[in-house]
Amino acid sequence: MASHAEQPHRKYSQTAIAEHAEGQQHPIRIYLVVWFWLFVLSACSYLVDYVGFEGYLRWGLILTFMILKAGLIVAVFMHMVWERLALVYAILLPPIAVLVFVAIMAIESDYTALTRMTSFVGGG
Amino acid sequence: MGETTLNGFGAKPARPSGIRGVAADWASDQRAFKSASWGKAMMWIFLLSDTFIFSCFLLAYMTARSSTTVPWPNASEVFALHMFGADIPLILIAIMTFVLISSSGTMAMAVNFAYRKNKGATVALLLATAALGATFVGMQAFEWTKLITEGVRPWGNPWGAPQFGATFFMITGFHGTHVSFGVLFLLIVARKVWRGEYDRGDRGFFTSRPGDYEHVETMGLYWHFVDLVWVFIFAFFYLW
Is B162 on the interface with A (CB under 8 A)? Predict the structure, then answer.
């Protein structure tokens, strides 16, 4: 038992777990920095609309800012970077199924639109 | 040292990290989430299920919008407000976004102060979070009122594809409900902190398990999730 307790923490993740033993305790500064960046990124995504970018540039920028914001919230505010991988994978991998669903429905709705355009051009 | 405590704190033998750690945790023939307590793991699993619900709403919206042959209403114009003598596009939604992000910031700090057992700061930050959340819901109510008076209905609207109203009310309504319940629970948690129930470990009304400052973090997970969902709604519904 004592040997366990005195074992030096060689890897970073072990340090993280040791930290966790006292609850998720991190410096306030990191939250303020993330908060600041969330403001900046939100302002950027609003500007995409305000400036009036169109097409792939618009969609690309919207997705980029969205993913960055979501990543910051999950990683830091929700403490995911400090959790063990067993939990991280259990929570973050299942939503991949949603992406598959998105692909399926994109193909399906494309077909629906095509059918509507060819069959109901006269107002259906 | 060999036994496992329910909250996961206390037992800390060196555990393997990386993918080996994943295999070891899941194959340990005990609880799989070594670093997360029962309550936190359950909150995460609930949030995962909620992720699927909101994903399905956004998917339904995507399907409706990309399969309709009628033009989709321009969100930039629909949600513009007439301020300072000009129409500013999406301004209300932008303010709502900043309000919700700020509430996430105060929530993260509340969790931090809760673990430091600083009751005063925790209560103040929780109440600030609740106030910002209530502000958000209030602005959403204003937005709904504005759209309804302009003739938006779940089955039609003056500007284009009729599915616009249905998806708008469904998605923002479900999100607003989440925020409203979040505000309610923030007030409950703030009261518990204020009365020192987490210091004494009073049993909760819901699970009958002893209270702990970790509950503030679990509450925070829910609140950040609500903010997270708004990030996706803002991107796909309002900006796309």
Answer: no
Dist CA B151 CA A115 (whole Å): 30
The fold of the B37-239 domain, in CATH, is Four Helix Bundle (Hemerythrin (Met), subunit A) (1.20.120)
The model's pLDDT over A60-117, given as tens digits with 9 standing for 90+, comes to 999 999 999 999 999 999 999 999 999 999 999 999 999 999 999 999 999 999 999 9
- Write the CB contacts of B197 (distance below 8 Å, at least 6 apart in sequence): B211
Q: Supply the DSSP symbol for B81.
A: E
| pLDDT score of A15 | 42
Question: Chain B partners of A31 at a C-beta cutoff of 8 Å?
Answer: 105, 108-109, 112
- Give this complex's ipTM: 0.88
Asked whether residue A77 falls in the same domain as residue A100, the answer is no
What DSSP character marks residue B153?
B
Q: Which of B13, B18, B232 sits opposite A66 (nearest CB)?
A: B232
> pTM for this structure?
0.87
CA-nearest residue to B28 within chain A is A86
